Amino acid sequence: MNKDLLKAGIYAIINKRLRMVYVGETQDCFLVRWIEHLKRMPSHIGNYDRMMLYLAEDTTYLVLKELNPEINTKREFYELEEQALEFYKERNWNVLSTSTHNEDIDYLIKTYTIAAKTKRYQLAVSHMVATIGTRDDQRVAVSRLYATLYKKINQEFNTNVYQRAKRGVIKTLTTAELQFIMLDLFPRYKAKRIDNIRNQYKQTLRQMDLFS
User: Is the backbone of residue 61 left (phi > 0), alpha (psi -120 to 50) or beta?
Assistant: First the structure.
């Protein structure tokens, strides 16, 4: 998995065949933002275009421009996001997002803390593990997956996560360790999540036909 996904900037969820695109910005990292998009897919089941974009097999997640939140201002993030939106609109693409650029925003206000970032990553990892580990005996599957991930962390970071806490190890993991897990899980998670939602969406459409 490409570690560039841990960088910040402007991204697109894009399908060239359908000429559909969602443009967004993240001042954290592309990876966690994409995980959150996939996590929230069920909330868009009533939005045909959004579901077609997410569920099409040839849809890609693309980094448009890398930015550094330590150097680039919030205003630059929002302005470049808006420029990307206009680029696709001018070419008559179906753009499924709106600009977050607002001249009235105080871009100097800092609202995102390290603790908030860590919590965001913990929630992302927990969701990914639950999604991948889902089967008849989910508890066993999930616990085995966590054990495998913690073993990888111990090897990668030369540590022992179990010495920090006997239970709730995930709450003791550093930002770097959580990012390592997200990178490791993302390919499997993305495939499983899309497959699950695709099946749910097909079932929803069948039910709509029955009651129409």
Answer: beta
Which residues neighbour 206 within 8 Å (Cβ) at sequence distance 6 or greater?
none
Query: What is the pTM for the complete model shown?
Result: 0.90
DSSP letter at 28 equals S
Type and span of the H or E element at 88: helix 74-90
Per-residue pLDDT of the chain (212 residues), as tens digits, is: 688 999 999 999 999 999 999 999 999 999 999 999 999 999 998 899 999 999 999 999 999 999 999 999 998 999 999 999 999 999 999 999 987 766 555 555 555 688 899 999 999 999 999 999 876 666 778 989 999 999 999 999 999 999 988 778 999 999 999 999 999 999 999 999 999 999 888 887 777 665 44
Q: Considering only CA atoms, give the Rg of the chain.
A: 19
Distance (Å, rounded) from C-alpha 183 to C-alpha 124? 11
Q: What would the two tokens of residue 168 be?
A: 């709730």
Q: Are 45 and 201 in contact (CB under 8 A)?
A: yes
Q: Residue 69 has which token pair?
A: 């939140």
Task: Using DSSP bridges, classify how beta strands 8-15 and 20-26 pair: parallel, antiparallel or unpaired.
Answer: antiparallel
Distance of CA 90 to the CA centre of its chain: 27
Identify the DSSP state of 144. H
Helix (H, G, I), strand (E, B) or coil at 122: helix
CA 59 to each of CA 22, 88, 97: distance values in angstroms, whole numbers, following the listed order: 11, 16, 16
Burial class (CB in 10 A: 0-12, 13-18, 19+), 129: buried
